[in-house]
Design goal:
alpha+beta; Nucleotidyltransferase, domain 5; 5 helices; single chain; two-stranded parallel sheet; two-stranded antiparallel ribbon
């Protein structure tokens, strides 16, 4: 177990997808994200949740643009769109991350495993209505 003495945290990365009714493919990683790790996440966790016609919207992190990411998404019949630079208001998952960070901070986990367990427990607090509202607030609408 890794303790967190005096509040000095090591970096953890949370990845997930946001659908109109739920959060999909959640994953917590030890450390920062890089292109190879993101591609593995897409191939192993996100892509299996995709259906033909789905649209994956990503920001402009370099790790999101590595070879293999688009191919894994398009192999499922989905498409990948990138947001304009510096446009967090168009990225609805940012609202999920903000709420998640607030909940995690209030739980004050002091060990890595407790942090991960707290995040897993928190995911159940996102209702279908809330997920739809995050998408609507960012300007997305559900297609018929």
């Amino acid at each position: 177990m890794a303790s967190v003495p005096h509040g000095h945290w090591k970096t953890s990365t949370f990845l997930a997808g946001l659908r109109n009714d739920r959060i999909v493919a959640p994953l917590v990683l030890d450390g920062a994200i890089n292109g190879q790790t993101f591609r593995a996440y897409v191939e192993q966790f996100l892509a299996p949740t995709l259906a033909p016609g789905d649209v994956v919207v990503a920001d402009n992190l370099g790790s999101h643009k590595v070879a293999g990411v688009r191919e894994a998404i398009e192999a499922r019949g989905a498409s990948l769109l990138f947001l304009p630079p510096y446009s967090p208001d168009l990225n609805p998952i940012e609202q999920v991350f903000a709420k998640l960070k607030q909940i995690v901070r209030s739980a004050e986990p002091r060990q890595r495993e407790t942090l991960w367990r707290t995040i897993g427990t928190c995911l159940g607090r996102f209702s279908a209505v809330e997920c739809a509202n995050y998408l609507a607030a960012a300007g997305y609408r559900r297609s018929a």
